[in-house]
């Protein structure tokens, strides 16, 4: 089947259903943020964050603001190291979002969430075509899309009995169910988190579909298109190259073994070759750019112990493995190459997430796809052999079983965001004078001196203005642990005056940004230090200039 035939197999009624589902998801995943904005207390503003990896959001805001300011290569403002001309990375995706914000004069946080909502219908259109490749029955297609949209693991049931989420980055392996904190794990969290992850998921699906069509039709236009998808995809998510390369290579070996057509490897080689340019680009930047290389060395993402992976997928993993065990002996699995591809994808992914690669946790994205597809295939075969099943006839029971076993964590994550917004958790709301202080820095720090604050405050400064800070983010801040210790000493007032002066001078720190966060966690009183001069005060925010 060609791509055109595949699209034509989808009826207008199905497309209307896809559009309706897209609208529903935009409302479900957009209204909590509207509530967050509207629920701001007097004198405060909503920061644009939500519960999944909130510390990463200011990094994305910083990228958008840099593009708005006309900087095409993205720099790391979350660290104090000097970054000369030519430093930074070219990122196609954030370039597009930044240009959108620049063209329509949008704030970075608004452009971020708008791009996320705009990509939701694009995701469902591409994913429905992908689903149609595996299922011809319209009801199975719809069920598959609904299943993958709302399904998640069972981490919610066990979260209170396991180790709590760590507050720092000393322990790289977070011991908490994955469905409660990893945004790439399932479709619902992908759509609720960030537009760049949605786009990455779209390109994953498109890459896989085009390669399957290339092999089915022996048509190099498909493998060429897959390679172009990879070219764009690996510009901003290069770590997925080994993921698709390994899975598709294993499936290629299966096809060659079955058909004896060695020339099928040409499609694979073409797609991989076209995908490589930005792999080389990132390697070059890591080796030649001090900040990018140091940041990459800190970006260690190990997969947690299997217990937490199991809880993150829950019954998705259980029933997908049952599907392989049930279908393989009956030879149902091997009668259809598409089914074999799904089995290879799942088994290979389970192995890759524990491969000796420092970013192995990234490979969790997309694993939900073969799990759900195999479960639907299992249900279809079981239903065919049990046509009079009372369970299948009771739709209310089926919905309740689905909610209990497959999507309670989805519901929990959605409600958790609303709860945080309702309770005005400090990380999600800041006083308006915070922005006033940032505007003062933007207007007066023409020399681009480094800004010092406590870590929580430091996340937001480069997120809203193009200014460098000393400490802000566990990955983006180079030599994070050492800097965190130095900042703790400074704000705990454990430096002697000469030591404090030397610390500020050696790190080119020009301003100290002081808020209620610093007052709560620190002992230092900046007004009493003769090497600090007050230059701004408004409500909860004070800014001190470091005297020469």
Strand content: 5-15%
Mean pLDDT, all residues: 93
Structural class: mainly alpha
| Ends distance | 72 Å
Rg value: 25 Å
Helix count equals: 26
Q: What percentage of residues falls in helices of 4 or more residues?
A: 55-70%
Assembly status:
single chain
With strands numbered from the N-terminus, the spatial order across the biggest sheet is: 5-6-8-7
Number of strands: 8
Q: Please give the largest β-sheet.
A: 4 strands, mixed
Low-pLDDT runs: 166-170
What overall geometry do the principal axes of the alpha carbons give?
A: globular
Give the domain tally.
2
Summarize the structure.
With 548 residues, this protein is mainly alpha-helical. It has helices at 3-8, 12-38, 57-68, 92-103, 108-134, 138-150, 155-158, 187-193, 195-217, 220-236, 241-259, 265-275, 277-288, 290-298, 306-313, 315-327, 337-352, 368-385, 390-393, 395-406, 408-423, 432-444, 455-464, 480-491, 497-506, 516-521; strands spanning 44-46, 73-74, 89-90, 429-431, 450-452, 509-514, 532-538, 541-546.
Characterization of the model:
The chain has 548 residues and is mainly α. It folds into two domains: 370 residues, no CATH class; 116 residues, no CATH class. 61% of the residues lie in helices and 6% in strands. The protein is built from 26 helices and eight strands. The strands form three sheets. The chain has a four-stranded mixed sheet, with helices on both faces. Helix 2 runs antiparallel to helix 5 and helix 10 runs parallel beside helix 12. The longest helix is centred in the N-terminal third of the chain and has 27 residues. About 1% of the residues have low confidence.
